[in-house]
Design a protein that fits this description.
Structural class: alpha+beta
Largest sheet: 4 strands, antiparallel
Number of strands: 7
Helix content: 25-40%
Number of helices: 3
Strand order of the largest sheet: 1-2-3-4
Shape: globular
Strand content: 35-45%
Length: 157
């Protein structure tokens, strides 16, 4: 498994995989396909190549894209922290430890304070992130429920 920082030329790969992601995610949020049979384009995807605080990654297996991760550094006067905006692995490759392996690589690439959240309706994501973050931090993280989201905070590195 390989995590690579996506070049601008690879933007379309993430855009294509986003259709599968939105299909899966439509189970948990109120999104639907457009009249053309596609989900609407991911808003602000291009910002991941124009904003120094956004990091697009492609997950590859044997040189084939099997997922992606979009990471953000959120800065405010109070604090700065990393957040996973979107994280996706094709169903065929799930439950094989790939997601955990990639998440750990992301945490190690971006050292510092993290805040990872999942929608209240997305129980599988809550279980996944709780397990991964718990293992990564040896249980040294906090978790709270706020604004319809489960949120985990921890420090990487």
């Amino acid at each position: 498994m390989l995590l690579i920082k996506a070049s601008y030329q690879q933007k379309q790969i993430i855009n294509n995989l986003m259709q599968f992601y939105m299909y899966d995610f439509s189970e948990f949020v109120n999104i639907d396909i457009e009249a053309d049979g596609f989900f609407a384009a991911y808003k602000n995807l291009g910002d991941y190549w124009n904003d120094e605080n956004r990091f697009p990654y492609i997950i590859q297996n044997e040189e084939r894209p099997i997922g992606f991760a979009l990471v953000r550094l959120i800065e405010s006067a109070q604090r700065s922290y990393y957040s996973i905006a979107e994280f996706f692995v094709l169903k065929k490759y799930r439950k094989k430890g790939i997601g955990k392996q990639i998440a750990i690589q992301l945490f190690n690439l971006h050292k510092g304070l993290w805040e990872v959240f999942q929608r209240e309706s997305n129980k599988p994501a809550q279980l996944f992130w709780n397990k991964v973050i718990g293992a990564y931090t040896n249980g040294n993280f906090t978790e709270r429920f706020e604004d319809g989201r489960m949120i985990q905070n921890f420090i990487s590195g």
